[in-house]
């Protein structure tokens, strides 16, 4: 079974990572269960604005990284794993929304788009607009587990 970490612990680990990346000129935001403010998280998913190879090199050089797990995942000395999601500016908001999840929620929203024969734009879209384009009010990340369809 995957080890779980308290939200408070993971948020502290993320803040230190965010500071490290910010000092190097990178914009980043948490996604996944950390952004949804779940009481516990299995890993720390985060989006970083920038070119993939460069972002992964900088994340891999973070002093708290103990080892690289795969191309995008690293284990910190504290035991928590981080999952870097590099993204370019024009797709950043869509990827933030999609990677925030949960998967059932994302699938539900995409299905509404399909049912209405609408295209869910992946480029240059504000996260709120993903919902308003299909007649929904914006759903905060921490509430998305409640809205997942059937």
TrEMBL record:
Entries under InterPro entries matching the protein: NT_sf (IPR043519)
At the top level, the lineage of the source is Bacteria
Q: Which Gene3D superfamilies match?
A: Beta Polymerase, domain 2 (3.30.460.10)
Entry protein name: Uncharacterized protein
What organism is the protein native to? Propionigenium maris DSM 9537
């Amino acid at each position: 079974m995957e080890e779980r970490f308290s939200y408070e612990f993971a948020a502290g680990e993320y803040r230190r990572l965010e500071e490290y990346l910010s000092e190097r000129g990178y914009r980043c935001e948490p996604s996944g269960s950390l952004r949804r403010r779940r009481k516990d998280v299995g890993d720390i998913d985060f989006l970083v604005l920038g070119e993939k190879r460069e972002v992964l090199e900088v994340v891999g050089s973070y002093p708290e990284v103990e080892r690289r797990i795969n191309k995008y995942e690293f284990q910190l000395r504290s035991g928590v794993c981080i999952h870097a999601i590099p993204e370019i500016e024009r797709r950043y908001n869509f990827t933030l929304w999609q990677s925030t999840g949960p998967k059932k929620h994302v699938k539900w929203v995409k299905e509404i788009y399909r049912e209405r024969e609408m295209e869910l734009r992946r480029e240059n879209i504000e996260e709120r607009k993903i919902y308003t384009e299909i007649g929904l009010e914006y759903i905060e990340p921490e509430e998305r587990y409640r809205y997942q369809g059937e």
